[in-house]
Amino acid sequence: MRAFSTFMNRVQSFVPWAGAGLSGLLLFGAFVPLEFPGLAWFALIPWMFALSRRMTKRRSMLLGWWAGACFWLPALFFLHPVTWLGYGILSFYCALYFVPFSLVMAAWLARFGAGCPRRNLCGMLLGAVVWVGSEYARNHLFTGFPMNNLAVSQYRNLSFIQIADVGGEYLVSLVIVLMNLALTFTLLRYASDSGRHKAWPHWELALGVLAVILSFMYSLRQPLEVVETRPMMVSCIQPNIPQDEKFFGESVDEVYRQVFELTDLASLQTNVQLIVWPETAIPDYINTQGAFSFCSELAAKGVPILAGTMRFQYLGENVDPAHFNSAVLFDGKGETVDFYDKQHLVLLGEYVPAAHLFPWLKKITAIPDNFSAGERSTIFEIDGHRFASLICFEDMIPGLARKAVHEGAHFLINQTNDAWYDPWYGSRQHAAHFVFRCIENRVPAVRATNTGLTCAIDRLGRMTVEGPSMQKWMLTTTVHVPITAGQTLYSRLGDWLGLPCAILMLGSSFFVAFTRRTSLIGQPRDADV
User: Fold this and answer.
1) Which of these, 454, 457, 461, lies nearest to 479 by C-alpha position?
2) Helix axes 57-75, 84-95, angle to 10 degrees
3) Among 70, 116, 392, 438, which one carries the catalytic annotation?
4) Is 342 one of the annotated active-site residues of the chain?
5) Cα 83 to Cα 361: distance, rounded to the nearest angstrom
6) 251 burial class (0-12, 13-18, 19+ CB within 10 angstroms)?
7) CB neighbours (10 Å) of residue 488?
8) What's residue 527's pLDDT?
9) What is the CATH architecture assignment of 229-483?
10) Is 438 a catalytic residue?
11) Is 390:108 a contact under the CB 8 Å cutoff?
């Protein structure tokens, strides 16, 4: 009997870890590549049930980190071709942002239980705020990593995510977490020992369902809005050059040939007003004579080209030139109009901090030199159409898209080279974020990739045209550019929801973490009404 009792104790001690891990895996299932978005609506329940067991603060925090690791390790697996070490570090770092939610909700359940509807409503709101605040913190701290907010799991659920033009991804995430917690508290009340609580009105579930219904009702009105637009024919090329061949030896000539063939074909199509190349489409700096002549001669055939390329700039004598990841616009006469330098660089992907002091740090990344960040958004103009480029992962950063729209852009272009990563898994996960930039600002967009998901997105977030990955391809589509842009609440106010949630998240987390009691074990006040 003693051996059996010991075995059961060990099994019971494992149950919370299994619940938290299951939630992490369910969350992963809601995102690309599995794409079962319905999982997101109840994924947090096993984790919440694990937190309802009495435990120490330390254990609740470890459970949160474990749930995060179970989500981020598979979610970011597409990064491993670049750097295994960087992939592991980033995954475990992102998992830390699950800790505040775990700590605060464990403390709430230990203190109040789940028997009182009034307190449950407060707990639901607190949990949703802490979750959103953690997303905001991850998106901004240490240059930010704004990938895979909970909202992005719903990028195909267009009848729900239209509320992003009010509060961005954070409002969408908040509604999803509210529904998770509504289901959790309802189930916990049914599991309570106090039978009389089961008969009370389930205001928790009512609040969660109401939030979802209002979101869907708001979304219904968006397709009915009449917006004046002007058509623009855009062609995006997808050369499909493997990353390990792009900058080396004999492959360089093949890169130029592929880009030339696709661009030449696009320029022959009727009414095309702009040809878009992906990020760093040609393996040389635009400042060099060969690269500049190549771009200029192609554009001189009559169709402007937005070329994804690199450029350098001399900053003075005895100073190394600055390197930029850029987009350069050539007009139909082959002359340069303007350029845009990428503003938000990818940590360990485009620069290594303190690399001049610690050269060994470069070994964990594939880049030979650090890039420099641009200082401005550039609004390009062709035939009266004003647009802006977001390079690589900049389409994940709501503030950059909003800034470009505020400065006059009426549609957006994402130029990216997803061949660095898994070209299907990573590229589709990457593209999902661009849907929200279109909804937040009510502007259309096109996406040009070296390989991956070259596509067009309308102002409602619909991917109207999608191309195949890992194939040489060209997308030609009509973009319906609105006459006015930047009129949404989100365009005007930005992340008005994220920052207050982050402040409340920090306050509640520190309050729980630094109280004298080290254990979250308490007598739940289920009888309070």
Assistant:
1) 457
2) 140
3) 392
4) yes
5) 12
6) middle
7) 19
8) 40
9) 4-Layer Sandwich (3.60)
10) no
11) no
> What CA–CA distance (Å, rounded) separates 132 from 497?
8
DSSP string, 466-522: EPPSSS-EEEEEEEEEESS---SHHHHH-STTHHHHHHHHHHHHHHHHTSS--B---
Long-range contacts of 288-291 (CB under 8 A, 24+ apart): none
Long-range contacts of 190-194 (CB under 8 A, 24+ apart): 192/113, 192/114, 192/115, 192/526, 194/115, 194/526, 194/527
Nearest to 31 by CA among 71, 1, 82: 71
Cα(500)–Cα(397) distance, rounded to whole angstroms? Answer: 19
β-strands 380-382, 322-330 pairing: unpaired
DSSP secondary structure letters along 361-413: GGGGSS-SS----------EEETTEEEEEEEGGGGG-HHHHHHHHHTT-SEEE
Q: Prior bond to 33 cis, omega within 30?
A: yes
Strands across the sheet containing 274-276: 336-341, 322-330, 305-313, 274-276, 229-238, 473-482
Tokens of 115: 């028997």
Per-domain boundaries in the chain: 14-224+496-513, 229-483
> Which residue is it, tokens 């989500």?
71
Walking along the chain (529 residues) 10 residues at a time, the average pLDDT comes out as 55 82 97 95 96 88 96 92 84 96 95 87 96 96 92 96 96 98 91 60 88 92 78 94 72 87 91 94 89 92 94 79 91 93 79 59 60 89 94 94 94 90 80 96 95 92 87 92 90 94 96 74 43
Of the candidates 342, 394, 438, 455, the residue annotated as catalytic is: 342
Six token digits for residue 294: 């190549």
Q: Measure CA 9 to chain center.
A: 41
The DSSP bridge partners found for residue 285 are 310
